[in-house]
Specification:
elongated; mainly alpha; 217 residues; 3-stranded antiparallel sheet
Length: 217
């Protein structure tokens, strides 16, 4: 079982990999759009074949497909953060010899982990900063994607609409239905918020009383 410092440090490294993955994926859509535009202008057979000889993909490649992927990024990022918080609970439970498990608490996700760590451990979670709010807001936005395919209902998703209204990198676009649009900056800002949270958490892990917390062990 990893000690808490190791759990947090490992997750911090994972975040660097996820950020690189997102950067490369975003760049891929720009490159695909350039290939597609060139294939139309130059009538280049191999590239035309790559796009199934379609001439109606400009909006898909510039807007729709990147939106699909950004929504996938958001689901992925919130999921790995929830898993990280659960792993941290397990590690703290073992390292500090806590008799109760986080699964004994009601609720789910990062809020349940927060309750467990706050009430039963001496680990101080850095939840007063803006990065924690960003993560919690992202969790709420993720729920619109996971449970409503990104479609926003004014009554059911009033909380999410407030979040969207306050964020320049989110948009509620109105057509036949209201749906969520995510700017790539939103995803990068979320990774940065998670990274800052883990950096602060590493400092708190070093303060834990158990001698096994030493990062060199």
């Amino acid at each position: 079982m990893q000690v808490p410092y190791q759990v947090v440090a490992y997750f911090s490294v994972e975040l660097d990999s996820y950020k690189l993955f997102i950067e490369m994926s975003e760049r891929n859509w720009l490159e695909e759009l350039e290939r597609y535009t060139s294939s139309i202008l130059e009538d280049h057979e191999p590239t035309l074949h790559r796009f199934n000889y379609r001439n109606d993909l400009s909006a898909k490649l510039s807007d729709d497909f990147p939106q699909y992927q950004r929504k996938s990024y958001l689901i992925m990022l919130v999921s790995i953060f929830e898993d990280f918080m659960n792993q941290l609970c397990r590690s703290v439970e073992a390292d500090l010899n806590i008799k109760a498990s986080f699964t004994d608490f009601t609720g789910t996700g990062i809020e349940r982990a927060k309750q467990y760590l706050s009430k039963l451990s001496s680990l101080s979670l850095p939840v007063s900063g803006t990065e924690w709010k960003q993560i919690k807001d992202a969790q709420a936005i993720r729920n619109v994607i996971a449970h409503a395919a990104g479609h926003i209902d004014k009554k059911a998703h009033s909380k999410q609409l407030n979040i969207i209204d306050c964020n320049d990198n989110l948009e509620a676009e109105h057509y036949a239905r209201t749906h969520l649009n995510i700017d790539k900056k939103y995803v990068f800002n979320l990774v940065d918020a998670m990274k800052l949270f883990t950096d602060k958490l590493l400092v708190e892990c070093e303060k834990l009383p158990n001698k096994k917390i030493n990062k060199d062990t």
